[in-house]
Amino acid sequence: MHQTSEKLALVRTLMEERGVDAYVIPDTDPHLGEYIPEHWQIIKWLSGFTGSAGTIVVTAEFAGLWTDSRYFLQAEKQLSGSEITLVRTDLTENPGFIQWLSKSLQSHSRIGVNGQVLSVSMFRKLKRMADEKKIVIDIECDLISPLWSDRPSLSREQAFDHPVSFSGIDRNQKLTRVRDEMVKQNVEFHLLTSPDDIMWLLNIRGKDIKHSPLLMSFAIIGMEQVLLFADEEKIPFIIAREFDKLGIVILPYEEAAGMLSTLRSGSGILISPASTSAALYSSIPGRLKVKEDVSIPARLKAVKNSTEISNLSGTMIRDGVALTKFFFGIERDKDLIPMSELSLTARIDHLRSLQENYLTTSFPTIVAYNEHAALPHYTATSETDTVISDDCILLVDSGGQYLDGTTDITRTICLGKPTGKQKADFTFVLKGMISLAQAVFPSGTYGHQLDILARKYLWEHGLNYGHGTGHGVGYCLNVHEGPHRISIKSGNDPSNIIAPGILVSDEPAVYREGEYGIRTENMLLCYEDEETEFGKFNRFITISLCYIDKSLIDFSLLDRNEITWLNKYHSEVFEKLSPFLEQDEREWLRLKTQEAGVL
Amino acid sequence: MHQTSEKLALVRTLMEERGVDAYVIPDTDPHLGEYIPEHWQIIKWLSGFTGSAGTIVVTAEFAGLWTDSRYFLQAEKQLSGSEITLVRTDLTENPGFIQWLSKSLQSHSRIGVNGQVLSVSMFRKLKRMADEKKIVIDIECDLISPLWSDRPSLSREQAFDHPVSFSGIDRNQKLTRVRDEMVKQNVEFHLLTSPDDIMWLLNIRGKDIKHSPLLMSFAIIGMEQVLLFADEEKIPFIIAREFDKLGIVILPYEEAAGMLSTLRSGSGILISPASTSAALYSSIPGRLKVKEDVSIPARLKAVKNSTEISNLSGTMIRDGVALTKFFFGIERDKDLIPMSELSLTARIDHLRSLQENYLTTSFPTIVAYNEHAALPHYTATSETDTVISDDCILLVDSGGQYLDGTTDITRTICLGKPTGKQKADFTFVLKGMISLAQAVFPSGTYGHQLDILARKYLWEHGLNYGHGTGHGVGYCLNVHEGPHRISIKSGNDPSNIIAPGILVSDEPAVYREGEYGIRTENMLLCYEDEETEFGKFNRFITISLCYIDKSLIDFSLLDRNEITWLNKYHSEVFEKLSPFLEQDEREWLRLKTQEAGVL
Prior knowledge:
The structure is a homodimer.
Chain A: H1 3-18, E1 22-25, H2 42-47, E2 55-59, E3 63-67, H3 72-79, E4 85-88, H4 96-104, E5 110-113, H5 120-132, E6 136-138, E7 160-161, H6 164-167, H7 171-184, E8 189-192, H8 195-202, E9 204-205, E10 218-221, E11 226-229, H9 237-245, E12 248-251, H10 256-260, E13 268-271, H11 278-282, E14 289-292, H12 296-302, H13 306-333, H14 341-353, E15 358-361, E16 366-369, E17 392-398, E18 400-402, E19 405-406, E20 409-415, H15 420-437, E21 440-442, H16 447-459, E22 470-471, E23 485-486, E24 503-506, E25 509-512, E26 516-519, E27 522-532, E28 535-542, H17 560-577, H18 583-592
Parallel strand pairs in A: 1-5, 3-4, 5-6, 8-13, 11-12, 13-14
Antiparallel strand pairs in A: 1-2, 2-3, 7-9, 8-10, 10-11, 15-18, 16-17, 17-20, 18-19, 21-28, 22-23, 24-27, 25-26, 27-28
């Protein structure tokens, strides 16, 4: 019997015992973040599916995994042989599994779900359907814990201090700024559920999950005290003592819900429904006035302070040095050593790890060869690993977590001779990337307004890409950090304004299914430019430092301004990186960044 | 005693009699459209203010007019000497007068307003505030009718047929299409309150207001019948007979509310809250299922049919001929005859009126000299009228209603020698205008996504404009026609998709307060372009035909592609218009459209 079938049989037995007709398994953890610890990877344990987005629904007769087009191929493979059906869905506001439940369940049925790993937002969508169909939802339904005998335990790694030399502002000042904002918003309490908000506020970092230096924790900020819910053993004594002076009280991780229920009657509390679990939300007593919005730390930390900005220039040099050594190494070794996607992944991760202040990768490194590069979220596995050969396209999307910043950069290179189509695609992507990088826009401009700048040249040639153009980036925190982004899916909310001090990625792309993919990505920092009679205007500065493969550029498609941008960028790359390179690397980079295309 | 004070005293007497603490006077009519008949111009009657946007609030101690920056100067002048205070507000979602009422009124106060001229949307905003403050709203409070003794009566002009040779689709087919859509939306009835929806559906036009060929009417579409609420005497017999065959029943204008209350219990009815009055809405019985959305005719008529599109090419030629004769005349006569904004307004309106199929202007013609052109909504009056002199900027924004289409076009010309700043401003506006006109975009693109194309070059030079970039245009109907537009204020609603067949204006601008204003506006028609592996793509074709003043262009700021666009456009303008011009006009236009700027 297939392992998954055995597990499903056990789940169904528990469902029957509990009177549950459909069991919903979301893909997240109690903090509803992007990268989740093994302990919470229930979908992987049950089905073998390792994609980062999906929902499983189990009924007596059916078991299905709902996921989107990024994961169709992967899910097909990983689910094959199991009795779990792949249900193709898209990333719309209305999750497909809710519609399916609405059609498949009878009135007065019962849906079970572990409310600890279901966001309030998702719970409300489920609830709306359930109410219409007179279906009951049991959000205290954890059927997995009793079954998962070899479940990985949660991390016991210690948190560490993130000193002001890196963070720029001490925790006391940050607390004051958050409390000032709480007063403006007329709330006495602020519930923080995203660990990155808490890390930023308390100037600490943790090691609880891959790719992001987070300590799994909740916090309730009050006007005098902060209640930090985390495993006490994971907070070093020296930090605990500092916390104590500032009225930051450490309480057991599990007690967040219990403490919420003791808050003063009539108080206002600010929560973020997208990152608060239904379980935690349900423990907020009715006598509190709940205000829902993006969290205050999320808004504040999006705008980088002057220390962070100044530190980042060093971070970007170290990151660029690692990348340069990596790409140099490929060209040097390509006819000497067989190289595969996996070996190159190990190589770039290793080169970054040698850099000062490095902690870890900021997301799973993507080294994608030819047709693999056409899958925007591809990561090589031992099954898909491919040896690099001549005349190929290689897309490398990678980033590091450093004590002084987080990086995210994509370069696409060609080994050998590119085709005309590849050069045209690459050049249209480059034009879009440059256009966004050069944007000038009035104060108050929303991210979605800038999206078309990166797409215009692609659209003019019948090309497009199916993802957003840019995401915010944390500072020694999540590589995908809100609330702003450059995407038409984001709206006219003040939190989506591209304001001076924010970081955002700039990553247009073209994906040719079965052939190759091209993406070029830099990080941009917004700064205040001139003020005229028409108001204040902002611009971007490109902070990522790595050459762009000129062999893939059709210079006849670039205009003078774009060529000037490229040559200026390349000269900056060479100037800033060359002092840290070996002689042969430096000479190689000199060629890669040599002035080109001048009319 | 000032006339306004006398009227206010009478209003206050009636307020007291009725126990009303604050009386609200909106700026609209029962159809909540843009141009309203004299009969409903209550604000003008009471205060003398003639701007098209404003709200008056009267209390025992205070009387204020809330209006936005477009009308500050005008309102100051027109209100001076009256006791009505100008309250400067902006065009946000939260009208300032509601906040003022919230602060100024005590609990259990009573607000009076004539619900016939208050939209459901606005009523809801008022109601939200009123409920919070425990204030009562009386929406059946018409205090003006008893006071306004010389009130202009409503028009008694007859409606007329809009034959299929112009409209493209007969009324029967249109009814079928609307009913098909009603079935999809699961409603048995559809309330139409915008006369332009009704004109389009029934292939008739009227003469009830200025600038738009509308018959003031309401309609309820059912599955077998259409109830048309209009003055029966205004429907010619021959049309009434045709209506009868199609089950279109003519009922008195006043009976719409009464008939609504008789509709079958449990039926679904579709209404548009933005164009439905609170009075009409309140007459919908609770036993109906109300669905709120953009009206079906609004969505359907936005996409022009092949007859309309093909007719428009002739309309644009006639409109362009009138404009060419107008601009030719200015240059010919400028040293011979004194010309003023008003005399030129009369001249362009007259030249248009000579064209075939012409009905009326499509909005109040703007001829604005130098600093007047810096006011986007300026129209000359006898007080502001200015004689045109040499070395000036002249902005002309005008349009016509023709049986075969509606036009809207702006040209800015220079008489004499422009300054370098004027040329730079003009050229950046032109670059934006051309960029939007040349846009290529995937099927499903929303209007707001394209907005930045028209602004990019202005932003790069610290310039901007405070209005949207483009509005939809009717076909022998409202010159400002929704639901789509090119503006960041519009969202990701399907009705805002720029789909093949829609018309939209393209009108970037620069306004230098106290100096001059520059706007260049063409109408664009969206059409389906190629389909690639990345989907379907659409483009625009520019349909307006009038030369662009080359003396205002700094050709060194244009790139090759823009120069090509301009020369191609100019050659098309000459080719299409010259057959209809006199010899001297033709030779003049040949020069105006001669190839220029070729590198």
